Amino acid sequence: MELQEAITTRRSVRHYLAQEVEKDKIEAMIQAAACAPSWKNSQVTRYYVAQGPKALTKTAEALPEFNRQNVQGAPVLIVLTIVLNRSGFDRDGRPSNELGNGWGYYDCGLQTMNLLLKATELGLSTLVMGIRDEKKLRELFGIPDTESVVSVISIGYSDSEPQMPKRKPLSEIAQFFEE
Protein backbone atom coordinates (compact mmCIF):
# COMPACT_ATOMS: atom_id res chain seq x y z
CA MET A 1 0.00 0.00 0.00
CA GLU A 2 1.32 3.44 -0.93
CA LEU A 3 1.39 6.19 1.68
CA GLN A 4 -1.28 8.29 -0.06
CA GLU A 5 -3.63 5.31 -0.10
CA ALA A 6 -3.10 4.74 3.64
CA ILE A 7 -3.76 8.44 4.29
CA THR A 8 -6.99 8.50 2.30
CA THR A 9 -8.38 5.10 3.37
CA ARG A 10 -7.66 5.23 7.14
CA ARG A 11 -10.85 5.55 9.19
CA SER A 12 -11.87 5.55 12.83
CA VAL A 13 -13.58 2.19 13.32
CA ARG A 14 -16.01 1.23 16.06
CA HIS A 15 -16.83 -2.38 15.07
CA TYR A 16 -14.28 -5.18 15.09
CA LEU A 17 -14.20 -8.80 13.99
CA ALA A 18 -13.43 -11.36 16.69
CA GLN A 19 -9.98 -12.00 15.23
CA GLU A 20 -6.64 -11.82 17.04
CA VAL A 21 -4.04 -9.31 15.86
CA GLU A 22 -0.67 -10.93 15.29
CA LYS A 23 2.06 -9.83 17.72
CA ASP A 24 4.46 -9.01 14.89
CA LYS A 25 1.90 -6.53 13.52
CA ILE A 26 1.55 -4.83 16.91
CA GLU A 27 5.33 -4.58 17.18
CA ALA A 28 5.56 -3.24 13.60
CA MET A 29 3.04 -0.50 14.43
CA ILE A 30 4.95 0.58 17.53
CA GLN A 31 8.26 0.47 15.65
CA ALA A 32 6.76 2.65 12.89
CA ALA A 33 5.49 5.05 15.55
CA ALA A 34 8.95 5.28 17.10
CA CYS A 35 10.37 6.43 13.75
CA ALA A 36 8.52 9.74 14.03
CA PRO A 37 10.62 12.81 14.85
CA SER A 38 10.68 14.19 18.39
CA TRP A 39 12.09 17.26 20.13
CA LYS A 40 15.87 16.79 20.35
CA ASN A 41 15.26 13.07 19.72
CA SER A 42 13.73 12.84 23.20
CA GLN A 43 11.39 9.95 22.23
CA VAL A 44 8.98 10.51 25.12
CA THR A 45 5.99 8.39 24.01
CA ARG A 46 5.38 5.11 25.87
CA TYR A 47 3.03 2.25 24.95
CA TYR A 48 1.10 0.00 27.33
CA VAL A 49 -0.45 -2.86 25.32
CA ALA A 50 -3.53 -4.77 26.54
CA GLN A 51 -4.19 -8.01 24.64
CA GLY A 52 -5.58 -10.77 26.84
CA PRO A 53 -9.24 -10.94 27.87
CA LYS A 54 -8.61 -9.79 31.44
CA ALA A 55 -6.35 -6.86 30.41
CA LEU A 56 -8.82 -5.81 27.69
CA THR A 57 -11.77 -5.88 30.08
CA LYS A 58 -9.94 -3.87 32.73
CA THR A 59 -8.69 -1.34 30.18
CA ALA A 60 -12.19 -0.95 28.71
CA GLU A 61 -13.48 -0.28 32.24
CA ALA A 62 -11.31 2.86 32.25
CA LEU A 63 -13.34 4.20 29.30
CA PRO A 64 -16.76 5.90 29.40
CA GLU A 65 -19.70 3.70 28.39
CA PHE A 66 -19.91 4.99 24.81
CA ASN A 67 -16.25 4.13 24.18
CA ARG A 68 -16.66 0.73 25.85
CA GLN A 69 -19.27 0.06 23.19
CA ASN A 70 -16.93 1.42 20.49
CA VAL A 71 -14.13 -0.99 21.41
CA GLN A 72 -16.25 -4.07 22.02
CA GLY A 73 -14.49 -6.95 20.32
CA ALA A 74 -11.24 -5.05 19.70
CA PRO A 75 -8.42 -7.52 20.37
CA VAL A 76 -5.85 -4.82 21.24
CA LEU A 77 -6.00 -1.63 23.30
CA ILE A 78 -2.89 0.51 23.58
CA VAL A 79 -2.54 3.23 26.20
CA LEU A 80 -0.18 6.02 25.12
CA THR A 81 1.65 8.22 27.60
CA ILE A 82 4.41 10.78 27.44
CA VAL A 83 7.34 11.22 29.78
CA LEU A 84 6.93 14.70 31.26
CA ASN A 85 9.48 17.52 31.38
CA ARG A 86 11.80 16.18 28.67
CA SER A 87 10.47 17.10 25.24
CA GLY A 88 10.44 20.91 25.02
CA PHE A 89 12.85 21.39 27.91
CA ASP A 90 16.52 22.31 28.19
CA ARG A 91 18.92 20.06 30.10
CA ASP A 92 18.60 22.29 33.17
CA GLY A 93 14.85 21.57 33.31
CA ARG A 94 13.63 24.93 32.01
CA PRO A 95 11.06 24.98 29.18
CA SER A 96 12.67 25.91 25.85
CA ASN A 97 9.61 27.96 24.87
CA GLU A 98 6.09 28.72 26.06
CA LEU A 99 4.79 25.28 25.09
CA GLY A 100 6.82 23.29 27.65
CA ASN A 101 5.26 19.81 27.81
CA GLY A 102 3.15 20.73 24.78
CA TRP A 103 6.05 19.50 22.67
CA GLY A 104 5.78 16.05 24.25
CA TYR A 105 2.09 15.90 23.32
CA TYR A 106 2.96 17.10 19.81
CA ASP A 107 5.61 14.39 19.51
CA CYS A 108 3.08 11.81 20.73
CA GLY A 109 0.69 12.99 18.01
CA LEU A 110 3.37 12.45 15.37
CA GLN A 111 4.01 8.95 16.67
CA THR A 112 0.28 8.24 16.85
CA MET A 113 -0.19 9.12 13.19
CA ASN A 114 2.66 6.82 12.19
CA LEU A 115 1.05 4.03 14.22
CA LEU A 116 -2.36 4.62 12.60
CA LEU A 117 -0.94 4.67 9.07
CA LYS A 118 1.09 1.51 9.69
CA ALA A 119 -2.03 -0.20 11.05
CA THR A 120 -3.88 0.76 7.86
CA GLU A 121 -1.04 -0.59 5.73
CA LEU A 122 -1.24 -3.87 7.67
CA GLY A 123 -5.00 -4.17 7.05
CA LEU A 124 -5.95 -3.14 10.58
CA SER A 125 -8.37 -0.51 11.83
CA THR A 126 -8.09 1.87 14.77
CA LEU A 127 -9.93 4.31 17.00
CA VAL A 128 -8.12 6.97 19.05
CA MET A 129 -9.89 7.88 22.31
CA GLY A 130 -8.97 10.80 24.52
CA ILE A 131 -11.81 10.45 27.02
CA ARG A 132 -10.58 7.93 29.60
CA ASP A 133 -10.08 7.50 33.34
CA GLU A 134 -6.43 8.37 33.88
CA LYS A 135 -6.40 7.12 37.47
CA LYS A 136 -7.72 3.66 36.55
CA LEU A 137 -5.22 3.35 33.70
CA ARG A 138 -2.33 4.39 35.98
CA GLU A 139 -3.31 1.73 38.50
CA LEU A 140 -3.87 -0.98 35.89
CA PHE A 141 -0.56 -0.51 34.07
CA GLY A 142 1.60 0.89 36.88
CA ILE A 143 2.09 4.16 34.99
CA PRO A 144 4.41 6.42 37.01
CA ASP A 145 3.61 10.04 37.92
CA THR A 146 6.48 11.11 35.64
CA GLU A 147 4.25 10.21 32.67
CA SER A 148 1.01 11.77 31.44
CA VAL A 149 -1.73 9.52 30.04
CA VAL A 150 -2.63 10.81 26.58
CA SER A 151 -4.97 8.37 24.83
CA VAL A 152 -6.20 4.83 24.32
CA ILE A 153 -6.15 3.33 20.82
CA SER A 154 -8.23 0.30 19.86
CA ILE A 155 -6.81 -1.91 17.12
CA GLY A 156 -8.32 -4.80 15.22
CA TYR A 157 -9.78 -6.05 11.97
CA SER A 158 -12.78 -3.93 10.97
CA ASP A 159 -16.30 -5.30 10.84
CA SER A 160 -17.50 -2.22 8.92
CA GLU A 161 -16.46 0.18 6.18
CA PRO A 162 -17.11 3.73 7.39
CA GLN A 163 -17.06 6.50 4.83
CA MET A 164 -14.67 9.43 5.10
CA PRO A 165 -16.33 12.40 6.79
CA LYS A 166 -16.43 15.59 4.75
CA ARG A 167 -13.14 17.51 4.83
CA LYS A 168 -12.81 21.29 4.70
CA PRO A 169 -11.53 22.69 1.43
CA LEU A 170 -7.94 23.89 1.22
CA SER A 171 -9.18 27.48 0.94
CA GLU A 172 -10.55 27.26 4.51
CA ILE A 173 -7.50 25.74 6.17
CA ALA A 174 -4.44 27.19 4.42
CA GLN A 175 -3.12 30.65 3.68
CA PHE A 176 -0.34 31.21 1.17
CA PHE A 177 2.03 34.21 1.32
CA GLU A 178 4.14 34.93 -1.71
CA GLU A 179 6.07 38.08 -0.86
Q: Can you describe what's shown?
A:
By secondary structure, the protein is α+β, with helices and mostly antiparallel strands. It has a single domain (3-173), classed as NADH Oxidase (3-Layer(aba) Sandwich). It is 36% helix and 16% strand. The chain has helices at residues 3-9, 23-34, 53-60, 65-70, 102-121, 134-141, 170-173; strands spanning 45-50, 76-83, 125-129, 147-156. A four-stranded antiparallel sheet has the order 1-2-4-3, with helices on both faces. Helix 1 (3-9) crosses helix 5 (102-121) and helix 2 (23-34) packs across helix 5 (102-121). The longest helix has 20 residues, at 102-121. The protein is globular. The protein starts with a helix and ends in a 6-residue tail after the last helix.
Short description:
The chain is an alpha+beta fold and 179 residues long. It contains seven helices and four strands.
**Shape type:** globular
Class of secondary structure makeup: alpha+beta
Number of helices: 7
Architecture in CATH? Answer: 3-Layer(aba) Sandwich
Which H/E pattern describes the elements?
A: HHEHHEHEHEH
Number of domains: 1
Largest sheet: 4 strands, antiparallel
